[in-house]
Design brief:
By secondary structure, this protein is mainly α. It is built from 17 helices and six strands. A hairpin with a 7-residue loop joins strand 2 and strand 3. Helix 9 crosses helix 10, helix 9 packs across helix 11 and helix 15 packs across helix 17.
């Protein structure tokens, strides 16, 4: 996801100039004080991480002189094949240690260490090659920078730069009586399930709905992208985080920063921004994947999914509609009981969701092209894409919007 908190600091002064626009959300001092006390032991410092990451980037730029060339396709595919194998090994090792299965623990652990070391040695080159491919694909679509009037139309900005690693967790807080992101707090990446549930329990006692999620990406600089994803996910996520940086310099993204900082809350703007970035990134990711990697896959590279009559997407949309109806009637407890029943039902279908509540839908529902959202914003943005002559036109039209009304009027 996709949250450009770090860029908020770059435009903080300007945000205060726009506070007079209204739509403000004055926080409760008592609530925020309690929230700070709960989250203090687990807070993730984006500023500290960026400082360390910047130093690492400088070291790699001037210290590691390994040549990165476009013939490194095999290195990329080997890296992500190892990522998948590492996940399997970790699961098998955990099962053996828990006593739920038997196996040669020493052999599995040795293979795990070997693959981890192999990927650690390759990750810098993999990052650089993917950065180059993403930048080239964006340029081919005419997407260079958000400030072309000032720094030149063909200059790439912000520089494409991302880091594969373990992104932080995000604490998402929603009111109980409606689905809306009230607060978001970045937490340490190494929290275990017990710590996550402890934070959630304490925050819920403040009278809200909360959920701690592991992010797939974060629009810091360099961007943070999980090293647990497959190649296609990584291409999409790295592009999406760059687009969040890009959009921060445009009217839509700037208003999203106002929402993130709590100055001018607007959930519809957040949904528009997240969905626009997600749609564009998927198109760019598809271009790169089809152009460089799809032809290298074998039929056995990915397991075939068994056909199933159960439609998860449709089920999630129906759950969301029902929850909204409960909340509209003021039936909060009934809505929460319903979500827990559905969470257990989904588990029987093979979809294991840790916690299904208002905060879950507030976070995942911000992407209007996903089944967790019933917002018409997704439909409207798809219409806008269909009527746009190019991907760049679609991006620029959406980026110039300042309200949901702008979007609705653009597709009439």
């Amino acid at each position: 996801m996709i949250r450009p908190q770090s860029l908020a600091r770059l435009v903080l002064v300007a945000t205060f100039l726009l506070c007079s626009l209204g739509m403000g959300c004055a926080p409760s001092p008592d609530f925020d004080k309690s929230l700070r006390e709960i989250t203090k032991p687990y807070l993730f410092s984006i500023a500290k991480w960026e400082l360390n990451a910047f130093g690492e980037e400088v070291r790699k730029a001037f210290g590691d002189r390994q040549k990165v060339t476009d013939d490194g396709i095999s290195q990329v595919t080997e890296y992500f094949a190892a990522v998948e194998r590492i996940k399997i090994l970790e699961a098998e090792i955990a099962a053996i240690k828990a006593g739920s299965r038997q196996g040669d623990l020493a052999s599995l652990e040795a293979e795990l260490i070997r693959l981890q070391q192999q990927n650690a040695a390759a990750v810098n080159n993999v990052e650089r090659l993917l950065e180059r491919q993403i930048r080239r694909a964006l340029s081919q679509q005419g997407i260079f920078n958000p400030l072309d009037k000032y720094i030149g139309s063909k200059v790439g900005f912000p520089p494409m730069n991302f880091h594969l690693g373990r992104p932080p967790h995000l604490l998402v807080i929603s009111p109980r009586d409606r689905i809306e992101s009230l607060r978001e707090v970045t937490l340490l990446p190494d929290m275990d399930l017990k710590a996550m549930e402890s934070v959630e329990d304490k925050v819920d006692k403040l009278g809200v709905s909360s959920l701690v999620v592991r992010l797939g990406g974060l629009a810091t600089y360099p961007s943070f992208v999980t090293d647990k994803g497959d190649l296609r996910f990584t291409l999409d996520a790295a592009t999406e985080e760059w687009l969040h940086q890009y959009l921060a310099f445009k009217p839509l993204g700037f208003r999203y920063l106002l929402d993130l900082t709590g100055i001018c809350r607007n959930y519809e703007i957040a949904t528009m921004n997240e969905t626009l970035a997600g749609m564009v990134s998927k198109e760019i990711g598809a271009i790169i994947y089809e152009g460089h990697y799809a032809r290298n896959e074998t039929d056995s590279s990915k397991p075939e999914k068994a056909e199933s009559a159960f439609d998860f997407n449709q089920e999630m949309r129906e759950i969301r509609r029902a929850v909204d109806n409960y909340l509209a009637r003021g039936e909060i407890e009934q809505a929460e009981e319903f979500m827990e029943q559905k969470r257990q039902f989904l588990s029987t279908k093979g979809y294991h969701i840790k916690k299904l509540n208002q905060a879950y839908f507030a976070f995942y529902g911000a992407y209007a092209d996903r089944p967790t959202s019933i917002s018409p914003i997704g439909v409207e943005l798809r219409k806008l894409r269909d009527q746009s002559a190019s991907l760049k036109e679609f991006l620029e039209t959406g980026a110039a919007m300042t309200s949901r009304q702008d979007l609705a009027e653009s597709v009439r």
